[in-house]
Write a structure and sequence with these properties.
By secondary structure, the chain is of the alpha+beta class. It has 4 helices and 5 strands; from the N terminus they run αββααβββα. A hairpin with a 7-residue loop joins strand 4 and strand 5.
């Protein structure tokens, strides 16, 4: 009974605060060593019309690719990814549902690479080499910003791990800004 009460209170706190909550798994940078870059795939699933926000796949893709480029991580095209060692793909998955006046869902950023079993080189598949995910709940009009902030936070976590495994030896060139 006490465990159910604790779970209920934790959920109430998340709903009341309107923020992202994710399991803090210790970061492991090792599998990212030598990663040649990633291609980016974004998926947003909103259950029903009421679960939609102003965020689009294009907006999330631009945010993710900009963060990667600013940190010096090569953004691979689909074709480049298929030719690269491990065929690396970064999947950004966002699922959104509604309940009463709230939106809730999940944000997950996962890096997949193709690998083969050492004991049987003919057994190959795509495996997760890095992942971060968390849930969120918020009022409808706060959802787009909350989701965007969650994606940025998880990208920062990925980039910290990537840079631990692949220290920068050359200065990263800033992204050119439009003249105002």
């Amino acid at each position: 009974m006490r465990a159910k009460l604790f779970a209920f209170l934790a959920m109430v706190q998340i709903v009341a605060c309107g923020h992202c909550a994710g399991a803090e798994i210790p970061s492991i940078a090792g599998p990212l060593k030598g990663l040649p870059g990633v291609s980016v795939v974004v998926g947003i699933v909103a259950k029903g019309e009421s679960g939609k926000t102003s965020l689009t796949q294009g907006t999330i893709t631009r945010i993710v690719e900009m963060k990667l480029r600013m940190a010096g991580v090569k953004v691979l095209s689909r074709e480049e990814s298929l030719l690269a060692a491990g065929k690396p793909v970064m999947a950004v998955d966002i699922s959104i549902r509604t309940r009463d006046a709230l939106l809730y869902g999940n944000i997950a950023i996962t890096v997949y690479e193709k690998a083969c079993l050492e004991r049987d080189k003919s057994t190959c598949d795509h495996f997760v080499t890095w992942q971060k995910s968390g849930t969120f709940s918020t009022k409808r009009n706060d959802a787009a910003q909350l989701i965007q902030d969650g994606v940025i936070k998880y990208m920062d976590d990925f980039l910290n791990d990537y840079l631990k495994a692949n220290p920068v030896t050359e200065p990263v060139q800033p992204v050119p800004q439009k003249a105002q």
